[in-house]
Amino acid sequence: MTSPMPTMKTLGELRASGHELRSVKDELRTNLIAVLQSGQDPFPGMVGIDQTVRPQMERALLAGHDLVLLGERGQGKTRLIRSLTGLLDEWTPVIEGSELNEHPYDPITPWTKARVAELGDATPIGWLHRDDRYGEKLATPDTSVGDLIGDVDPIKVAQGRTLGDPETVHFGLVPRTNRGIFAVNELPDLAERIQVALLNVLEERDIQVRGYQLRLPLDLLLVASANPEDYTNRGRIITPLKDRFGAEIRTHYPLELDHEIELIRQEAALQAIVPQHIIETVARFTRLVRQSPAIDARSGVSARFAVAAAEAIAASALRRSAITGEQPAVARVSDLAGVVPSLRGKVEFEVSEEGREEELLQHLMRRAVAETFRSHLAGVDLSGLVEQINQDTTVVTGELVTAAGLLEDIGTFNGLARIVAAVGDDGAESPAMAAAALEFALEGLYLTRKISKDDLGGTSIYGAV
């Protein structure tokens, strides 16, 4: 919740309030210490980094270091960087009309210096919220020094100013984020000659624009992100620039299955009910894809892969509900296979696997289902269900088969309640959730070769071996 903007309107009122000037890094340090002392999470929304990335980030901020985050795609680097604004003061004073968010106590451009000298305590001030103290640039080959640092503004020259007048300079993104946090995403993609322009920003805190030597003591935290593969091969961070960053922090994908599941639940916008065992299957599937030798490990498998899979599975359940009229829409194992083809484009395969991409993903999905089945139902007596199937019972399921139709095919048998309880989904007493649990058990029995299964397009038929 945003607190009200302070009411001070002039430099004199600000001095009378006892306000003290602090640098950005001092703000971050002081506020981080307060957050740590209160036991709060300084990086809300970040999953699975408490024992790895978080301590390194905290040390870097407490030390006042500019930093580089290294990690494959989809590891939350940008989200982590953007969360840093929550450690800034909520409101900070600026000289009204300043392009560079200059503090009323410390003007740094000729215009603001002259204004404060002329008006003194009557100098008007404004207030900047911390959300407006963040700047970001995705490094692309066409990024120029003018974009980042600044250039001569021909319009100001045409208005009568001479080329020797510093007022002809149009400041770039970095100076305009003065007294804030500036992020460069995918820094190695920035041309080396452009990286050179950041050297003085990081160390001497001055900038140079087309021959102007402007001594601007910029006050900011500079954070960059990079993919390790780009960092070492396709592109690179020039050595003098690496030397000026105080910390280099490696990010990672979720290390634990529980963290993977938590991340999917947090990020996925699910348009139908997706039972916990389905989410767990998606999490295991994602981890198997990352570990597969058929996948190009250098490009990684983004967390967005798992999120997209969960959302597509929910959409499949919603489609079934819309077509059949079944309510509520609940995802089942039969929804898994149909979404795999749509995920193929989110993964980079080894060249030797060309033409087998979908087959590989379907295989890994079956392995994920089998692992989840063993996790939940390995110790459960499923003999009643197997006997039911062996008594010439066939169960038809698929993308458009309703829960009522599935339950009717199975019929009643000894052990139904145990299966539903072992799967452990909330609301499992409803027919749709019970059907999801039973279909999961059927698929697990098939994968462990206790029953048979015939696939006919979007329909599957389970029967005796």
| Number of beta-strand segments | 14
Largest sheet, described in full?
A: 5 strands, parallel
Question: Termini distance?
Answer: 61 Å
- The CATH architecture assignment of the largest domain turns out to be 3-Layer(aba) Sandwich
Number of domains: 2
The best one-word shape is elongated
CATH class of the largest domain: Alpha Beta
Derived structural class: alpha/beta
Mean pLDDT: 89
Strand content: 5-15%
Please state how the strands of the largest beta sheet are arranged side by side. Answer: 4-7-10-1-11
- Gyration radius (Cα, Å) is 29 Å
Q: What's the name of the CATH homologous superfamily of the largest domain?
A: P-loop containing nucleotide triphosphate hydrolases
The fold-level CATH name of the largest domain is Rossmann fold
Which ranges are low-confidence, i.e. pLDDT below 50, for 5 or more consecutive residues? none
The percent range for helix content is: 40-55%
Instruction: Report the total helices.
Output: 21
Question: How is this fold's topology laid out?
Answer:
Elements: H1 11-16, H2 24-38, H3 53-63, E1 67-70, H4 77-82, E2 91-95, H5 110-119, E3 125-129, E4 134-138, H6 145-148, E5 150-152, H7 154-158, E6 169-171, H8 173-176, E7 180-185, H9 192-195, H10 199-202, E8 207-209, E9 212-214, E10 220-226, H11 228-234, H12 239-244, E11 247-250, H13 257-267, H14 276-291, H15 303-324, H16 336-343, H17 357-377, H18 383-390, E12 395-398, H19 403-410, H20 416-423, H21 431-447, E13 452-456, E14 459-463
Parallel strand pairs: 1-10, 1-11, 4-7, 7-10
Antiparallel strand pairs: 2-3, 5-6, 8-9, 12-14, 13-14
